[in-house]
Amino acid sequence: MAENWTNAHTLMYFLFGFSHLTDWKVTDEEKEESIRIAEKYFDGVPDWDSVYREVQSEYIMDLGVPNPTEEGLKKVQTLTIKCAEAWADSIDKKHKPLELLLKDAMSLAKADGNFDDTEKHLINALAKAWNVDVKVD
Fold first, then answer.
1. Spatial separation of the C-alpha atoms in residues 23 and 80, rounded to whole Å
2. How far is Cα 133 from Cα 124, in angstroms, rounded to an integer?
3. Of 44, 76, 105, 125, which sits with the fewest C-beta atoms within 10 Å of its C-beta?
4. 3-state DSSP: the chain helix, strand, coil percent, rounded to 5?
5. Which of 118, 135, 99, 127 is nearest to 20 (CA)?
6. DSSP states along 10-53
């Protein structure tokens, strides 16, 4: 991760990765929802667009663009999950951060008006892996 990486970047990497890995694109609506979600958890971040661009740039490098590889795909999948877990580890457990994150992922998935089976499957798979009581049909 970049030298100036913060916990806000960590959360944003998960949100960006979730958006991208479910349908291979990130819409403007998903970007706006990612920023709205992140703003709920962090005060004092003066420029969310900059955080988003830094995360996007890091993610694209991790993926291996302009010639993405299977290794790059595995790397962003792994880092997306690790960023979610790292962010959750930094939050008081009484707030159930992984549950909050999955509910935010649902909101993010719906942001582009298309809550598809791939997004639902990923949320359900993460809920099962993290032993979180969240399920979508």
1. 15
2. 9
3. 44
4. 70, 0, 30
5. 118
6. HHHHHHHHHHHHHHS---HHHHHHHHHHHHHH-S--S-HHHHHH
